Amino acid sequence: MHRLVSSSVLAALFCGAAALAATQPADLALTNAEGTLRFSLHVRDGAAAYTVERLAGATAAPVLESSPLGLTRTDADFATGLTFVSAGEVRAVEDEYTLVAGKQRHIRSRGVERIFTLRNATGMTLTIAARAYRDGVAFRYGLPGSGSQLLRLSGEATGFNLPDGARIWAQPYSKVDVWAPGYEADYANGVPAGTAAPAEQGWALPLLFHSGATWALITESALEPTYFASHLQPQAPGGLYRVRLPEADETYGVAPQEAVFTLPWVSPWRVVVVGSTPGAISDSTLITDLARPSELAETSWIKPGVASWSWWSDMSSPSDYAKLVPFVDAAARFRWPYSLIDLGWHEMRGGDIRQLADYAAKKNVGLLVWYNSAGKHNQVPDAGPRDVLNDPLLRDAEFARIAALGIKGIKVDFMQSDKQFVIALYHDILRDAARHHLVVNFHGATIPRGWNRTYPHLLTMEAVRGGEQYWDKTFAEQAHTLHTIYAFTRNAVGPMDYTPTVLTDPGASNPQLQPHLTTNAHELALLVVFQSGIQHVIDPAASLASQPAFVQDYLTDLPTAWDESRCLAGVPGELAVFARRSGTAWYVVGINGLKIPQMIEVPLTFLGAGRFELSLITDGAKPSAFIHATRNAAEGEPLELTLAGRGGFAAKLVPAAK
């Protein structure tokens, strides 16, 4: 449910702000119910700005310094000449919902909302809806009215002004080429705020920063087909990061850079997740709290889980029936629900997709199949099927056809733009896929923006430089560090299709690939460190079959949807330790982002009363080796571990038999 409840008690908390507004209407505030975060609006000299502060008693520490607000339409200016009109009452926002797949299943969020109304120089109205929660603040613009006239939004003045001395973790936004943009550049690792992006296209969202005792993450939620997806300008003088539109050359001229809409209209939420530790950022559900509720009344057909995947180890395999059978068999062996059949499956030799789907169904395995999203909006050569999903009639007919074959889901690749045209295509594909009970994975895509709540069958999205990038020596050398950054940045905003778990030498099966430098225990941990409704295991079927029995036991029936998750320790670029629960089983995992060993103590205080059976997999004497131990554990007994350089651990705890 999703409701707004008037609260005289909450309104009373802000009577001081209301009294101030009577004499100084430029200063208005909204404080969360916990009294720990404050959003303040300022309207002076025709310009609107805001600040965000953390509160502790009478002390206020800046999260964001004075930051600009405003919009520009081709027919109207809402960034200058603004005057304050009114501030609405403070209302409580109460929200309870369930995610089919995510870091937490049942979520109850509580916040407060206030709507501020401004007027531009020609008398037109702009609203700014602000919300404050325990773990962050958010705001969005509104343009009231009605009618069928198409209006064009050509700019956004929004900025995020970081405090002096802040450091950032952010990903450069990629220049348009055949394979980009796809949110696949390497993250900057704790560089000083204000550092210029390495490319003129700027910085992608999300942006994580650390200042004093505060960690915060900037991103978006509830992006609808009425707007584009934003990123940030390359220059951030004094730490001021301003919103940037999609690049003009995205979609090769097929679609405009600006957004076109009718009234009434609202923007996506601009979101600032706030906490005292990086773990508070990764644990937050604020992105889905702000998203629209699910459009689906019935979701029992949506099955999260692990998938085998043949393409990485043999790029010709999707067009060869005989090469795909062992991967279906591997999925059946580990009781995984899926096997992914990647690009080229429509040209399969030695059999066809109908025969493979029938074979897989007999083994209780569902097939996922790959599509190019194009159309003319991408120019990826020789990658099919293509020119189907961009056409509504062809798309619906194709979804009906493959659903009749027993196909369970689709991987849609090469979206490669944040323009409004492509954002609308995401929504159209998701709605049509739901009608045919197909789960969805977007690849070569933008970041999640809360869509996995609105469309629960959206189980994962790429938007990361993932495991398939082992063709790049630089990536192989940096992967251990990037993994600990992803946990607190990209994966914090939604499911991430990294394609983890390289347990073999990639070059043994594909000479184009580099060897992985992470330990095998590190790789095994990634299946739980990273949250994704579908986890595509990258290792070849033969390698999986050759793993020790305790590794195979760990992989069998591995969950990908979690009842609850907790970050136990971590710093981006250095360490990430997580505990995730599915039913009565806890999975506790950690990865070392450094090249040197780390000694860590992992608290088990989350277990609760009783004894648990612990199965622990840690680094062996060489990177490819494991050490396995079993024993009883209890909540007051921490795990004391030494992680190898680039190492990790994976543990499973289940209640001990009585």
Descriptive account of the structure:
The protein has 658 residues and is an alpha+beta fold. The chain folds into 3 domains: 2-289, Beta-galactosidase, Chain A, domain 5; 295-457, Alpha-Beta Barrel (TIM Barrel), CATH 3.20.20.70; 463-496 and 498-531 and 563-658, Alpha-Beta Barrel (TIM Barrel), CATH 3.20.20. Helices cover 19% and strands 35% of the residues. Strands 1, 8, 9, 10, 11, 12, 15, 16, 17, 18, 22 and 23 form a 12-stranded antiparallel sheet that branches. The longest helix is centred in the middle third of the chain and has 16 residues, at 420-435.
Q: Which key phrases capture this entry?
A:
alpha+beta; 3 domains; Beta-galactosidase, Chain A, domain 5; twelve-stranded antiparallel β-sheet; TIM Barrel; 14 helices; seven-stranded parallel β-sheet; single chain; 658 residues; globular
User: If you average the pLDDT, what whole number results?
Assistant: 94
Low-confidence stretches: 1-26
- Largest sheet, described in full? 12 strands, antiparallel
Query: Based on CA inertia axes, which overall geometry fits?
Result: globular
State the CATH architecture of the largest domain. Distorted Sandwich
CATH class of the largest domain: Mainly Beta
First-residue to last-residue Cα separation: 40 Å
Structural class: alpha+beta
User: How many structural domains?
Assistant: 3
Which strand-content bin applies to the residues?
25-35%
Radius of gyration: 25 Å
Under CATH, the topology of the largest domain can be stated as: Beta-galactosidase, Chain A, domain 5
